[in-house]
């Protein structure tokens, strides 16, 4: 059996290059370029931290603004870090059952952003959540005119409070399946799909319904 060339990410990027109507954002070079500065990934977790997600946000949003003329990109607020107080223990430590033994300083604790919704435009509208699938719906009281539908995996958790600030309504869906009926019902101005490389093969197992 022949071995496929490149990683799943490389093959996806090459395939999507055939569809210029789609905007494909590769975050690898931006993240590599930021190496050597502050820590962008957790040491005890398989995900990026809030600072890593900020690199992703700052790379993605100019592409979104190009697709949505007149969009003003919301600035990112960095949560304060308190030395000796702010620690984090993630999924890698949990898999070992050693959450207390393995923990790290949390230099940009996202929980402080999530714990202060009064400081942000976007407010969660729990009444709009769809049954049967994990969704988060946010609305801005004084919003720009655009709306967004975001398909995402767990890497997007720290992106949610950043992205939601840019739209009148933003719906975040945790699903590998693209649902045309949801797109037609919400009629968003833009659809964003965020996936970490390790989940790229999942849509093949859960194809778009016809």
Q: Write the element-wise H/E pattern from the N-terminal end onward.
A: HHHEHEHEEEHEHEH
What's the β-strand tally?
7
Share of helical residues = 25-40%
Q: How many individual domains?
A: 1
Distance between the ends: 31 Å
Flag low-confidence runs.
none
Structure write-up:
The chain has 210 residues and is an alpha/beta fold. It has one domain. The chain has helices at 8-16, 28-33, 50-67, 91-95, 110-114, 160-163, 180-186, 202-205; strands at 87-88, 104-105, 122-124, 134-140, 147-152, 169-174, 190-193. The strands form two sheets. Strands 3-4-6-5-7 form a five-stranded mixed sheet. A two-stranded antiparallel ribbon has the order 1-2. α6 (160-163) links the parallel β5 (147-152) and β6. The chain is globular and about 50 Å long. The protein starts with 7 loop residues before the first helix and ends in a 5-residue tail after the last helix. 21% of the residues are buried.
Task: Name the descriptors.
5-stranded mixed beta sheet, alpha/beta, two-stranded antiparallel ribbon, single chain, 8 helices, 210 residues
Compile the SSE list and pairings.
Elements: H1 8-16, H2 28-33, H3 50-67, E1 87-88, H4 91-95, E2 104-105, H5 110-114, E3 122-124, E4 134-140, E5 147-152, H6 160-163, E6 169-174, H7 180-186, E7 190-193, H8 202-205
Parallel strand pairs: 5-6, 5-7
Antiparallel strand pairs: 1-2, 3-4, 4-6
